[in-house]
Amino acid sequence: MKVVPFALAAVAASTFASVAVADDADVGEKAYTQFCATCHGVSGAGDGPMTQMMTTGVPDLTGLTDRNDGAFPMLQVIHIIDGRSGMRAHGGPMPIYGALFDAEFEDSNTYGSVLYTRGKVLSLAYYLESIQN
After folding, report:
1. Which residue segment(s) compose the domain that 8 sits in?
2. Which of 23, 27, 62, 63 could be bridged to 123 by S-S, CB 3.0 to 4.6 A?
């Protein structure tokens, strides 16, 4: 019977850790710099160093709100980052960061990895929202 309170405490701790990841602006900025800036550029303008080798254009991420009638398309951005949208870039699928972040989480607890992944994706989306023109 003591396993249940421990399991609940573990799930609660994972949830709060995930929320902390999503709320920390530095986490989103660091993740952007590590995973996105190579193509989208440090400022998000679509001018990263990899664009010289790509055959298709890279979107300017600082204009997402402008291109969406003044509202940041949070759910669409999340789906693009985690791979649910099927967004294609440079002749193939854009890297699916949801799967990458899942693999990055070293705990075997399924719920913990899901929460970690969603927190990381959300922190990236919040960062993108913060760099809108």
Report:
1. 3-130
2. 27
